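Could you help me review a protein record that somebody else here produced? Do not assume that whoever made the record got everything right. The record follows directly below this note.
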Amino acid sequence: MNNNQGKLIVFSAPSGSGKTTIVRHLLAQEDLNLEFSISATSREPRGEEKDGKDYYFMDLKEFKQHIKNDDFLEWEEVYRDNFYGTLKSEVERIWDMDKHVVFDIDVVGGLDIKHIYPERTLAVFVKPPSIEELKIRLKKRKTESDDRIAMRVAKASIEMATAPQFDHIIVNENLDDALEEAHRLVKEFIAE
């Protein structure tokens, strides 16, 4: 495989839907030949996060310079002065390894990638069974305040409205079924 054959596999979902769990599972499947796309961000590292492994951390000035230089495949200001994006060099790095790129990314970034590479991108939306179930999952994490959970749930309603714009929707009611469906979709897509 070379850069002309590498595919892009996008997983987008509201927070708490299980997309990260699905992406981690797929990365462990050697038959898929996937490599994770590390996003760039202007926010500070949290906890044990490592630069070049979890994110490419950069200050606001550096991030904005990359925007000006057109270095991003996609980028977004998620909160004020809090930017996230995918460097074009990251996709090239993975394609140079003869692998397919897999993204765990927000809906806006996911759809941007699909628009740039419509034939080479599989865009999958992971949907919770309901907003109520999403709220339960977020509370079980015990990582955020009730206010942050309420904010994520409100954002989830808006994000779920974009689901029909994706190639496939996986309803993550039963994790094993969702993992199986995700594996099948990716396997079929990379075989095309």
